[in-house]
Amino acid sequence: MLKFLSRVKIEYNALDPRIASCMEFMAQCNSRKARESNPACQVEVKRRTDDFPPQITVTFVNGVEQAFDATSTPAQSIRTMILQKGQTLETEQMFKEAGESWPVIIPKEELSLPAPGIKPRKAEEKKQ
């Protein structure tokens, strides 16, 4: 998960009962596997004393920053979103390294064409 991030900032008040997501996400960030995936990723924890709601802010390796309200977003949902965004970043990088344009634009007329190597279904097969 951390391999797609350059920075993680976790903010919470230790007395706030809504910190479960922050604590779980912090544990995931501090796991051996996560740290080994990107040792350069900065994980910053800010323990607050005011009424500021728990928040997790991540900065992706491309510089895009995204903040999550940790009172209503489970840690697993944040992790899943990071992994999905990371796959997109990897795909974008592969296209750029290959000299292809990104994003891939598929002409509207090609969307209705059958995929190569797949036989179109016969009308009688569709009825069954």
TrEMBL record:
Domain of life (superkingdom): Eukaryota
Entry keyword annotation includes Transmembrane helix: no
InterPro entries, per the entry: mtLSU_mL53, Ribosomal_mL53
Pfam families to which the protein is assigned, alphabetical: MRP_L53
Keywords for this protein: Mitochondrion, Ribonucleoprotein, Ribosomal protein, Transit peptide
Cell location: Mitochondrion
Chief location category: mitochondrion
Family annotation (Gene3D superfamilies): Glutaredoxin
Family of the protein in this entry: Belongs to the mitochondrion-specific ribosomal protein mL53 family.
Protein name: Large ribosomal subunit protein mL53
Gene source species: Stylosanthes scabra
